[in-house]
Amino acid sequence: MEILDCSNKAFKRYGFEVTGYDLTGLLAALDKTHCPKDSVTYKAEEPTLQNEPVCEQLRGNLFGGMPIQLGYCNGHNLKLNCLEYHRGSEFIAAGTPIILLVADLRDVENGKLNLGKVEAFYVPKGGAVALYETTLHYAPCTAENEDCFRSVVGLPQGTNVGKPEITPRNEEDKMLWAKNKWLIAHPDTGEAKNGAYVGLVGENITL
Q1: Smallest Cα–Cα separation from 66: which of 51, 74, 56?
Q2: Is residue 41 a contact partner of residue 34, using CB atoms and an 8 Å limit?
């Protein structure tokens, strides 16, 4: 699979590079968070990140004053496994080099996505991007033989925390996996075995 830089114009379909913010303190705080070398860990809200002054700047500017949460996704990962999306953009800052596997929600047909539609983008250490709400994504992948990757994740407040109890009214409702988190899984994953909506067609992508 070809891996393009996030500065490539092809990335404009999925999001944009975030510039104009001093992320030094945020990434220094990220360096102190847990980073497993044989799995992936995610924390929706991390106080040490949210207490950094840049958090208020991101809330006011990048998210237009809307309530947000800053957490992290760290670990070791070389597989796609699933794709998710949210109502609202997602901010990602790279504490180490990372690779994002993404696709366009508009390419999902009848609850299925052909994995040939997935593209890979490299985000360098210290770089940051914002993904549109129409961008399917999941945990970043480890890049450049790092023991583990580190990434800050900013989302609308409450995302990924708990799961609403709903009666499905359409196909999309079946994909709801957590609050403001719609998930489409590959059949050969733990998520699928745990009841996640299966809709990724093709071989599970491995970098």
Answers
A1: 56
A2: yes
Domain covering 3-162 assigned CATH 3.40.50.2000 in the classification: no
Burial of 11 (0-12, 13-18, 19+ CB in 10 A): buried
**Interatomic CA distance for residues 48 and 30, integer angstroms:** 8
Q: How far is CA 1 from CA 30, 69, 114, in A?
A: 29, 32, 15
Per-residue pLDDT of the chain (207 residues; tens, 9 = 90+): 999 999 999 999 999 999 999 999 999 999 999 999 999 999 999 999 999 999 999 999 999 999 999 999 999 999 999 999 999 999 999 999 999 999 999 999 999 999 999 999 999 999 999 999 999 999 999 998 778 999 999 999 999 999 999 999 999 999 999 999 999 999 999 999 999 999 999 999 999
pTM given for the model: 0.97
Using alpha carbons, list the distances in angstroms from residue 30 to 17, 112, 123, 127, 194: 19, 35, 16, 14, 30
Per-residue b or e along 76-114, where b marks 16 or more CB atoms closer than 10 Å to that residue's CB: bbebbbbbbbbebbbbbbbbbbbbbbbbbeeebeeeebe
- Residue 147 CB partners (closer than 8 Å, separation 6+): 35, 37, 76
**204 in Cβ contact with 78 (< 8 Å):** no
